[in-house]
Amino acid sequence: MRFGHFDDDRREYVIHRPDTPLPWINYLGTEAYFGIISNTAGGYSFYRDARLRRLTRYRYNNAPFDLGGRYLYLRTADGEFWSPTWQPTQTELDDYECRHGLSYTRIGSRYRGIRAETLYFVPLGETLEVWRLKLTNEQQSAVELSVFSSIEFCLWDAQDDATNFQRNFSTGQVEVADGVIYHKTEYRERRDHFAYFACSEPLEGFDTARESFLGPYRSWDRPVVVQQGESTGSIAHGWQPHGSHHVKVTLQPGETREIGFVLGYWENPRDAKFDPPGSQTVDKRLVRPVIERWLRQECVDEGFAALGRRWDELLGGLQVDTPDGDTNRMVNIWNAYQNMVTFNMSRSTSFYESGIGRGMGFRDSNQDLLGFVHMIPERARERILDIAATQLPTGGAYHQYQPLTKRGNNDIGSGFNDDPLWLILGVAAYIKESGDWSILEEPVPYDNQPGSEESLYGHLQRSLRYTLERLGPHGLPLIGRADWNDCLNLNCFSDTPGEAFQTTENASGGVAESVFIAGQFVLAARELAGIALCLGRPAQEYLDAAEKMAGTIAEHGWDGAWFRRAYDFRGNVIGSASNDEGQIFIEPQGMCVMGGVGVEDGTAVTALASVRERLATPHGIILQQPAYSSYRLELGEISSYPPGYKENGGIFCHTNPWLMIAEAIVGNGDGAFDYYKRINPSAREALSEVHRCEPYVYAQMIAGRDAPTHGEAKNSWLTGTAAWNYAAITQWILGIRPELEGLRLAPVLPSGWPGFTAVRRFRGATYHITVERGGSRSLLVDGAPIDGDVLPAAPAGTEVTVTLTL
Amino acid sequence: MRFGHFDDDRREYVIHRPDTPLPWINYLGTEAYFGIISNTAGGYSFYRDARLRRLTRYRYNNAPFDLGGRYLYLRTADGEFWSPTWQPTQTELDDYECRHGLSYTRIGSRYRGIRAETLYFVPLGETLEVWRLKLTNEQQSAVELSVFSSIEFCLWDAQDDATNFQRNFSTGQVEVADGVIYHKTEYRERRDHFAYFACSEPLEGFDTARESFLGPYRSWDRPVVVQQGESTGSIAHGWQPHGSHHVKVTLQPGETREIGFVLGYWENPRDAKFDPPGSQTVDKRLVRPVIERWLRQECVDEGFAALGRRWDELLGGLQVDTPDGDTNRMVNIWNAYQNMVTFNMSRSTSFYESGIGRGMGFRDSNQDLLGFVHMIPERARERILDIAATQLPTGGAYHQYQPLTKRGNNDIGSGFNDDPLWLILGVAAYIKESGDWSILEEPVPYDNQPGSEESLYGHLQRSLRYTLERLGPHGLPLIGRADWNDCLNLNCFSDTPGEAFQTTENASGGVAESVFIAGQFVLAARELAGIALCLGRPAQEYLDAAEKMAGTIAEHGWDGAWFRRAYDFRGNVIGSASNDEGQIFIEPQGMCVMGGVGVEDGTAVTALASVRERLATPHGIILQQPAYSSYRLELGEISSYPPGYKENGGIFCHTNPWLMIAEAIVGNGDGAFDYYKRINPSAREALSEVHRCEPYVYAQMIAGRDAPTHGEAKNSWLTGTAAWNYAAITQWILGIRPELEGLRLAPVLPSGWPGFTAVRRFRGATYHITVERGGSRSLLVDGAPIDGDVLPAAPAGTEVTVTLTL
To answer: Glycosyl hydrolase 94 catalytic domain: from which residue to which, for each copy (chains A, B) (predicted)?
Structure first.
């Protein structure tokens, strides 16, 4: 069952009814000012940091779901009122449509002959959002309308705002000047920033106190001010600062009017906060021109067009035309878009991530790179250097760092032994895309300590050494707190309720080893060797280490029909046919084959067959089977989930593209593409009543076959799934793969495809690629045949025509 | 304007309408299982720790305010439904009444001829709450009713529950067996505890998934199950576990039926969690008999009666009959009740305290003692020893400790230099009440380190020494992070938004001194000297130190017409006529006079006159004047509040009783009682539309004269205000004052009073006290005149008649 449709021409998903199975959200903002917005205008906004600079208040897990947002009310002279975005009044509208586009959302409806469409977006270069309401009178007679806006301000620190009422109910402050509502809580003390909410029309009235606007014991479904048709002019003193304008318009039959609202964030210079100086009145001289500009309709038009051009440019890095519509749609629009959102948000802000908890993940951010490095290589470069500067002198890593300070997060700690290797893979991806070898010479400190700088290349060497210095009794890498699977906690032994598995002090003296890290090491060592070779530096050491580790995997990591997962604290095997539960895990199958392990001797193919037999479901590939039916002290969080959910037998989508890549590596294009389609959200659109999450982006998890809700997705948007699926389809199935030596073209297509075309921007040149099946293999570049599958370097700015016949 | 009335005979506050200015709450539970409940059944429950063992979900600062609670719905066969507690349907009821009593609440209403009354309480000795619904058909014909219950389960850790959705939406689990709903999220792993929700009647149906009960995008005001009259039998898998029963009853005209619900918490032995062992099914064999018992009506009747007897006993420690009804009501019922609640909750759980943040305060808990030590001296003894064990070897103190672990809280830290002195005052109060000198010989560790034990007396000596080892250039005590006023941060200099003033690293090298601590030191040193004298230990040293400090105050702490507040980091005076703002503070005026400073030389009287002139308002005495109009880096948080709120010129009620005591000390009974009445909540009942908080308990703060909302109270219930006001009225104005040598009777009455009577339990004996005005002073004990004003010791169990003629 569908709740909408894709409008690929406009790069929009169009939602047909407001009561989607879950709120289906979108993101506003691409630089510093961000927001989430649902299909019924729910959500919130923030400046840079979703925890510390939250502009508007939102209550997660509320009932109704998704209450709190960017609300408008229309009221006719007879007293009837409704919200043109359905929420919060939930009026049964005559029609309704939400169009989620690239960094904008447009929600339209018709009721009582009034068409109302609201466009929400954040202009480039600004720290504000625009709401443009377009009203059309489709009645036969003139109509007099009251328009009310409503937002609730958050008192900046979202965590404190939700818990510290003995203070916060006394601190709220606002100003209203020239019809603009200024929210200035704590501006009087240490904040140099405030929020503002402005309207393009002369005001009939306003409210800034939530209770005055809503009325006592009321919610947003029937604010007393809207019901009565009259603002109160309230000024908030503590309690809940709120912003509401009241505007009256009369529309002749057929007439259209536009009303603009601007909600923004502003920082004044610390020494110019007040006007006059010495007063407590916000100095508005710098912000006023910005507000006035964005209340002008022509400025909004141009700003919206500029946003579209920005996305043209970003998406222009790769556009494909394949026989499969779901592939085209995801690669050309939504997967790329999700990659950019993931880059901007890391794991902080979604319908599932409350913006309170998590910093930037060392491991996450390195993987997110894979998805956006071709769109903005310079941002990837910056991100890499930020990450590397949090690496520890041991070569280990803080598991997370804070985006505002860029310092490693001591609370989460370190010792996730896969972390350092991701830095090698991230840097390799960056160089492959950009050809920018200079990054390796950048001096980067350890743990942000001045004086500790070493070249980034030195960091990569330490990363590899970190693994080699931490091998277990089988010669496999020690797992530490966890490897990629944060929930496989082999040194934790937690029996205390609520204790965090990732931060609790680990038991010492164990020998827990990870086959996953072993596979990852082989991959990373070979990548570093490739880099070293290009640089003319010694590489043999890395190749030897990779070879040796591959041998160790073959000896101690192979279970007979698949790769084992790990050895536990006491040396017992995990992910083996000899286990009663958790016999086979997906991660080592994917990572070992990606590292090349078993590709030559055929064990890779055997492992992949086992995956298909034991883990694949119509909704994707399960993380492990059989799921753990009870808690296992020696395994940790993985066994804490009910069977079929999350790491305990859920379809953890992040891992699925590894299997797609592995299938491509062994030449199975049908198998790779089959897996791709199983979790491709567009391909699952018709199952929306089962999938429940947005059909335009990947979710982190789909409930596995042991779950009563098999097929139900959760945790959409912010997941490494986005970057890896993008890599799997574009680099391995379509085979347009950046390498150190240039752009490789090595598709592994499903057998039914006659071919595809693509346009790929690479190191400044643009490649027009045609892949077609023919009698015999040939590769033509600008009409001339070339050997191998790596396209020769082309000068920046040139257009290159490439034809590959398979 | 009133929203209810006091029913003193039943010890209840009776609320007449549901839409009180703010939710007016009460507390359920007195031992281990607790809840808050509003006058419309809002609130939540927890076991011991409001953060880590939260049973039900509540959303603070929601709209409507106070949504989420212990809800019932009634539905007639024609499909109409309503909540007999008004929320959440907000149906306009034909009548409504909420009776908040001592640890129980009863909410009744009538609608469509159905009278419904629900009694909520926690039986003594149990970890569960009972809801008893009594339905009466007042119609002329039989009526068929559906009853639906509704609670939403919290996933135990309230902080995690409100932020970590990427995990929590996948973990929820329930069981339903024999009509009982078991909430067992995480029971499968490390929790040995679960919640249950049972009903006394055979079920027509049930729901355990919130969305199934409410319906998509709905709230509790119109659950789809109630609207349709049929439960769905939903079993929650992740998302939001919920509990709802459906019961059908037919009531003949005039018939009354009772339906019982039990919501509880249960811990199984770790090795007997599952039945059968090896399964994942909750072992219910231990809990079933408990559930069955409390579903029986006669058991509930007896349990409720036992609760009443418990309160009879607790309140029996002191009952007074004075000419002032507000005094009688607060002393005999509500203030004593609030003292017990404050003792149980510290500052964790109220409408303003979200249960997430704060541990037990070293300073808070010592002061809270003052209010309940006469009711349960043995609990006070235990509390004192817990507190003292967190004292540091330096004599300093952690500012807070955690109630579950009883360890000092490193996050909040130490260095609040008033803290150690409160231990002396708390112990003195305990000994005075109990006569239990043995506590001083108890071995108590420092910082909970085994091996560091010293007698409690030694702890008190170190407390005093802590101050003497930290004197500033004027000889006044250094203030450290702060003294009693947490918001006067003289060493902080915070310019970072959102930084905590109390935990940020302080600047070093300053000389900030506190006149308040100086006054407190004089008081504490004299108390310790008194204890030493009784013990026959050296006391002169303490008396000399007190004398010397009093002299220092006179020299450097006296401003000419009042006591100064402090000297800042650089030695500049605070709380002086020479300041432009913050010229006079309330705290040193109260504390110095309580320490006896200036009582002999008349400066005390001068200071009190200044308070009356500059700080007293009809709504209470303001903390300081003039309020700080802008943020002052050198003063910290106090200047962060808008003028008139909290410490920045608010009426911080905690401090007001110090002035009442000071007035009593200088013999001004009219002045003392005048201040008492200004903030006495019962006396402010008629101002409820201004005061807004509950008229039956003290609030921490009333907005001061600089605030636009002057007279509006905030942060009711959990405040040291309760204990101190109780001490002021009972010990100083009524003058029934425990001393080391026995019970002193030294009233300082308002001039208009002819006298009063009281019954006071003291060290096991019961004193029947009559105070009356007469020609000449005499004190008769059992008819015989005695000298002085200390009653001779009476054997436990005896009744003593005391007549004081003034």
So the answer is: 311-735
